[in-house]
Amino acid sequence: MSKSLQEPPGSGPKGPDDYRRLRRIIAEDPLWSLALVPSLSHLCLKSFVRDFEGLTVYEQLSNTQRQFIQERLPPSLPLSVTANVIEDGVYWERCCKQQWDLCDVSRYGDSWKRMFFERRLEGMIELFIPGVTETKKILDMVPLCENYVKRLDISQLLTPIRVPKKGKDEDDNVLGMETDDDYDQMNHFDFCILLEKLTCLEELHLVYRVKQCGLNYEGRMFEMNYKDCQSLSKALKSCKTLKLLRLHQSNIDDAKVQMLVKQLLGHPSLRELDFSHNVIGDLGAGAVGKLLAKSKLEVLSMCDNDITDSGGKAIAQALSKNSTLVSLNLRLNRLRDEGGQAIAEALMNNNTLRHLHLGANEVSGPTAIALAKVIAQNNTLKSINLSCNNLGEDGGKALAEAMSHNTSVTECDLRLSEVDEQIVSSINQVVWTNQGLGKKDRAGLNLTKYKLEDPLRTNQS
C-alpha cells in the first residue's frame, strides 16, 4: 500500500495513536450515543414493568430493584394487582399526586399508601347513592384496603333519589303538598356493611349532610334519621378498634344519643367522643354521663348543644367518679350556675382532668367562685376557659386570689367575661409565670431522662 493511501493528505508521518484520534463515526440516528449496552438485569426489570400483572417474583427482588419498578409502573394498574403486592413508596406517591392536587402526607402518618386508600374509600362513601350504587363496589374494596385504613373523614352522605309513589293525586304534587308517606324514608349509607371489616380503623368522623345541594335543598338532607342511627350504632359496636368518634352537624337529638351510647357502653378502645354542633339536651347529656362513668374516655366534647343545668349535673356526677377524662368541652350550652357549680364541685374529687371549657354557658360569679376553690387546691388542671360569660367583679377577684397560689394552670381565658382588666392582667401574669415554670420542669425532665439513658456520657462529663 502506498504511503499516500496510509496518511491523510497534507500530513506528515504519524504514529498509531495519532490515527485513533482522527477516526470519527457519524451515526445516522441523531439520538444514538456512546452509552454502554444495557445490562441483562436492567432489561429484565423493564420487562417486569411491562408485564407486571403476571409477575410473581416481585417480593424476591432487592430494594433497589423494587424502587426501579415503582418509579416506572403506570398508576392506572388495577388495585387488585397492586394493593397487596406493592409496599408503601414512590408508586403510591405517584398515584396520590395524579388523583389529588393537595397531598399532605403528614396527616396520614407519612404513608402514601394509607393516604391513597383512605381518600379513595372516603370518596366512594361520599358519592354512594342508596338504592343506586351497588354495595358490591364498597365490599370489593375492603380486602384491598382493610390493612391501611386507620381514619375515615366523611364530609357528606347522600340520600336516595326520591321517586313519588304511584297513585298519588297529581294536584297534591302541583300544590307542593308532600308528606312523609309520599316517599321512602331517606336512609343514608349503611355502615354496618363496612366498619366490622375495617380491622385497623381508629378514627371515624361523620357529618350527615349533602354538600352543594343547590336548589334541591331539603332539611332532611342534613340530619341522621332513626334508621341511620340504628345501623350506625350496631356498626360502632362491632368496630372494636375505634378510638375516636366524631359526629358533627347531624341534628342528633336525645333519643339518637341514647341509642348510640347504649351500644358504646363497654367499648374496649373508645377514648375520644365528640358530639359537637347538634341538638342534644339534658336527657342526651345524662346518657353521655353514664358512658363517662363506665368507659375509659379521655376526651369529651359536646359544645354547641342544648344542655342546661340538669344535663350539667349529670355530667358532673359522672366526672366525680371518673379517673380517665383529660379534656371536657361544654362550650356554647346553657349550664348556668347550677350546672357550672356542680362541675366545679366534681373537680374537687377529680385528679385527672387537665382541660375545662365552659365558655358561653351563661355562668356568673358563683361558678367562678366555686372554680376558684378548685384552682386553689387542684394541681392537675392546666387550662380553664370561662370566656363569654358574666363572671362579674366578685368572680374575677376570687379567680385572681386562687391563681396567686397556683403553679399548674398555664391557660386561663377570661375574654368577654365582664372581669376588670387589671384583674385579668394579674391572672395573665400568673399564667405566664406558670408557663415558664412548666418549660423549666420539662427541660429538667429531659435532662434527667438524658442522664438515665446514657450514664456513661454523664460520667464522662
Q: How many strands, what sense, and barrel or not for the largest sheet?
A: 9 strands, parallel
Number of helices: 18
Residue ranges: pLDDT <50 for 5 or more in a row? 1-7, 170-184, 455-461
Question: What sequence of helices (H) and strands (E) makes up the elements?
Answer: HHHHHHHHEHEHEHEHEHEHEHEHEHH
Strand content: 5-15%
Class per helix and strand makeup: alpha/beta
How are the strands of the largest sheet arranged? 1-2-3-4-5-6-7-8-9
Kindly, what is the distance between the CA atoms of the first and last residues, rounded to a whole number of angstroms?
Answer: 85 Å
Q: Helicity level, as a percent range?
A: 40-55%
Description:
This protein has helices at residues 3-6, 16-22, 40-50, 63-70, 79-82, 90-99, 112-126, 135-145, 170-174, 226-238, 254-264, 282-294, 309-321, 336-347, 365-377, 392-403, 421-453, 455-460; strands at 151-154, 203-207, 244-248, 272-274, 299-301, 327-329, 355-357, 383-385, 411-413. By secondary structure, it is of the alpha/beta class. It has a domain at 45-100. Helix 3 packs across helix 4 (63-70), helix 6 packs parallel to helix 7 (112-126) and helix 13 packs parallel to helix 14. The longest helix has 33 residues, at 421-453.
